[in-house]
Amino acid sequence: MNRLLLILMLMMLPLLASCQAEVPIEWEASTDNVGVEGYNVWINDELYETVVDTFTILYLEVGDFVCQVSAFDAAGNESDRSNTLLLKITDIIKPSKIDTLREREPN
User: Fold this and answer.
1) Pairing of strands 21-25, 36-43
2) How far apart are the C-alpha atoms of 30 and 44, rounded to whole Å?
């Protein structure tokens, strides 16, 4: 990746975080005869992230999201997806800071 682009992306993270939500999710571990390698996190039927444990979904904007998780093993076998978790993200932007507080002038 272009170094300048990476620097710009890193500089934008605080801005993105200030106007988008973080949602921690967790689930009970899946079992497999040879062991579970990891989990796929699905949001609105699209693969969002592959993880090995619980996860925090980052940068969701206002809206409704359907989240599911599936497990996979080293052989590439994948479980059916979990039950659905509906995430409703509403009004995540706080009002701006007031920087003009002053004593009111008498009439």
Assistant:
1) unpaired
2) 22
- Residue in the structure block whose two tokens are 């009004």: 91
d(CA 67, CA 42): 6
Q: Where are the domains of the chain?
A: 32-92
Written as six digits, the tokens of 31 are 């079992």
| DSSP code string of 1-67 | --HHHHHHHHHHHHHHHHTSEEEEE--PPP--SS-EEEEEEEETTEEEEEESS-EEEEEE-SEEEEE
pTM for this entry: 0.67
Per-residue pLDDT of 31-81, as tens digits, reads: 999 899 999 999 999 999 999 988 888 777 888 889 999 999 999 999 999
Per CATH, domain 32-92 is 2.60.40.10: yes
User: Among all chains, which residue has been given the structure tokens 């170094």?
Assistant: 3
